[in-house]
Design goal:
Layout (H helix, E strand, L loop, with lengths): L14 E8 L4 H18 L1 E9 L12 H13 L4 E4 L5 H11 L2 E3 L1 H12 L3 H15 L12 H4 L4 H40 L3 E7 L5 H9 L16 E6 L5 E6 L9 H6 L1 H8 L3 E7 L5 H15 L7 E6 L6 H10 L4 E2 L8 H20 L9
Parallel strand pairs: 1-2, 1-3, 3-4, 5-7, 5-8, 8-9, 9-10
Antiparallel strand pairs: 6-7
Length: about 375
């Protein structure tokens, strides 16, 4: 039946999903990891209707979960009308195939979910190229399972050839597309290198940190900019650079970068190399951390792990910047300063500590300019 002209089409509803974790770790850590997975699912546009945790000690090699837990999960998916099952850990291609067959639902793991979020939020040509490259490199080893129905064991005589031919054709097309994307990204990298050549004369600071730590909000407060800010994971995918100039004409180039997360897919780290170079070549890294997050210690380690993989010698110095101080009392702030000597505690929302951080950057810029001219540094500079 044709819809009336005045009918307003309803937007597609969010997919219902069940998130699944494994309890082979501390319970408190598992709860926080599952909370983060729920936020990731929400960012991707899914509605979490149930959580399932496997309590057995080891991971089943074929299905990740034990037989009884798979049956329980299948019943929950049916009862809650869920179309998707999201696992907090990475699954092997075989585990995904086996689970989808047993559960009769779409099964994705944490890496695939993060890749989907990046694909959804990519806006510029560069970030779209980077995300597509990461997705294809993630998909390539999983193509074999898509053609299992054409294997000799499944259909007997006459099916092996077409199956192998189609699989090899698909692999070849994916590899060719990967090669083209890498060439396109090389072209983008050359453009960025030209921009960086012009910037190398200036003092450069880069904001790095866990996703949703408030980097973009702090960037706007420091540089008086208006980059997109949202209280969701991975709101920023593209690096943005703004010029800060003091009343004394001291200049700082401040860059906002993509956020990190635990278990960040290595394909993404590799694909976003040209974006992360802004951090690699900075004169100082401002490691922004949500001071109010109870899991901040793990977040700090996760960021350090990624930085250790991408940074080369000589590594730029890192300054710990604890954001969202407006959510802490004075005792908690004092404890932070005692634990992390030399750190800066700020609130990008209220403005607390922002002027202090800005002046520190200007002072470092003046020192940098003086050292290049061979002038003795001012003793009061930081």
């Amino acid at each position: 039946m044709k819809a009336a002209p005045f009918d307003v089409p309803r937007p597609p509803r969010n997919e219902n999903c069940v998130i699944v974790g494994h309890a082979g770790r501390e319970k408190e850590y598992l709860d926080r990891s599952m909370d983060e997975l729920a936020l990731l699912a929400d960012t991707a546009g899914a509605k979490v209707v149930e959580r399932v945790v496997q309590r057995r000690g080891s991971i089943h090699p074929a299905t990740f979960l034990g037989k009884g837990k798979v049956e329980e999960l299948k019943q929950i998916l049916s009862d809650r009308d869920a179309e998707v099952c999201i696992f907090d850990d990475d699954l092997s291609p075989a585990q995904v195939r086996n689970l989808e067959k047993l559960l009769e639902r779409k099964v994705i793991d944490r890496s695939e979910l993060i890749l989907d979020i990046f694909a959804k939020r990519a806006r510029t040509r560069e970030s779209r190229l980077q995300v597509e490259l990461a997705q294809l490199e993630y998909t390539l080893p999983r193509l074999t399972g898509m053609w299992k129905h054409l294997e000799r064991q499944a259909g007997g005589i006459g099916t092996r050839g077409p199956g192998e031919t189609q699989l090899e054709t698909d692999k070849r097309l994916v590899r060719e597309r990967i090669a083209r994307l890498k060439e396109a990204l090389k072209s983008v990298e050359r453009e960025r290198e030209t921009q960086r050549d012009r910037r190398r004369r200036e003092y450069r600071a880069a904001l790095v940190g866990y996703t949703n730590a408030g980097k973009s909000t702090l960037f706007n407060a420091l540089a008086k900019a208006d980059v997109f800010v949202e209280n969701r994971l991975f709101a920023t995918l593209d690096s943005t650079t703004r010029q800060m100039v003091s009343a004394m004409r001291e200049m700082v180039l401040l860059t906002d970068t993509v956020g990190f997360i635990r278990k960040l897919p290595h394909h993404l780290v590799a694909s976003f190399h040209s974006t992360l170079v802004e951090a690699i070549e900075a004169d100082v890294l401002l490691h922004v951390t949500d001071a109010s997050d109870p899991d901040r210690a793990r977040h700090i380690r996760a960021v350090d792990d990624v930085l250790d993989k991408i940074l080369t010698e000589p590594r730029p110095p890192r300054l710990m910047v604890f954001n969202k101080a407006d959510r802490l009392d004075e005792d908690a702030i004092a404890a932070l300063r005692a634990e992390f000597e030399g750190c800066i505690v700020v609130s990008a929302v209220s403005g607390e500590g922002v002027a202090e951080l800005r002046q520190m950057l200007y002072a470092n810029s003046a020192l940098n300019a003086a050292s290049k001219r061979g002038v003795t540094a001012r003793p009061e500079a930081i």
